Amino acid sequence: MSANRPIALSIAGFDPSGGAGVLADIKTFEQHQVTGFAILTANTIQTENEFIEIQWTHLNFIIRSVETFFKRYKISAVKIGIVPSLNYLNQILSVIKQLSPDTLIVWDTVLKSTTQFEFTSLDDRFDLNEILSKIDLITPNYNEIELLFPGFTTNQPGLQNEIPTNILLKGGHHPSTTGTDRLFLKDEITDLLPSDKKCFEKHGSGCVLSAAITSNLAWNQPLKEACRNAKIYIEKYLNSTSTLIGHHYVS
C-alpha cells in the first residue's frame, strides 16, 4: 500500500456486472489515486438492466468487519451504499463514529433499484435525523429525496434547514433541469450545472458519483470542491460509452 495515498472504504452491495456497488466504487477510488477497501452489505444477482435477487449480509458480520478495518487503518472517508433498514445503517454509523470521529461519511441513498426493487425500509424513520447527524453528505435524486422528506422539492418552508446533514440533490431525474445538481450546505445552496459534454445513461452512475466525492474528500478537498470535481468525473464516465456500462479510464 502506498504510504502517500489516503484510504477510502466502501460499505455497499456487490453488483456482479461491476456497474454499481463496491466494484464500481473501487474502480472510482483507484482512478482518484485512493486506496480502496470494501465491505459487502449484500450479494446480488443482476445485470446492467435487470435486478433478480439479493441476499443481505448479517449486521454483526458488517460490524466486525468495520471494527477490524478501523482498528488497523486510518480511513479518511467512507461511502455507504445499499442497506436493508435505517437501523442497520445507524448501527454501522455509530461504530464508525466511535472508532474514528473524524472520518467523513457519504451515504448514497439508493432506496430502490431502477426496476423498483426496494432496498431500504423506511419504517423506522423516526430515527432519521439522528442518523443523518452522523453523516457528512447524502446524495439522493429527486425521487429519493421525496421518499425521505416529503415536500422537499416543493420548497416546504423551513424543511431544508431542519435536515442535519449536507445534501447533493442529483438532477438526473429532474423533469425540467436535467443534469443540474443542487448542493445544500448549512447556509448556502449551490447549483452545479452540466457541461455541454454528451452524456449517456449508465447503470450505477449514482454509485460512481458518490464514490468520486468520497475519493475527493479523502484527499481533503472541501465539500463543494469535492462535489464539483466529482461532477466532472461522472460526466466523463457518462460520455465514455453509449451503453449502460461505462469505462472508468476516461481521458
TrEMBL record:
InterPro entries: HMP/HMP-P_kinase_dom, PM/HMP-P_kinase-1, Ribokinase-like. It is an enzyme of class 2 (transferase). Keywords: Kinase, Transferase. This is hydroxymethylpyrimidine kinase. GO terms for cellular component: cytosol. GO terms for biological process: thiamine biosynthetic process. It comes from Flavobacterium collinsii. Pathway: Cofactor biosynthesis; thiamine diphosphate biosynthesis. The gene is thiD. GO terms for molecular function: hydroxymethylpyrimidine kinase activity; phosphomethylpyrimidine kinase activity. Residues 15-247 form the Pyridoxamine kinase/Phosphomethylpyrimidine kinase domain. Its EC number is 2.7.1.49. PANTHER family: HYDROXYMETHYLPYRIMIDINE_PHOSPHOMETHYLPYRIMIDINE KINASE THI20-RELATED (PTHR20858:SF17), PHOSPHOMETHYLPYRIMIDINE KINASE (PTHR20858).
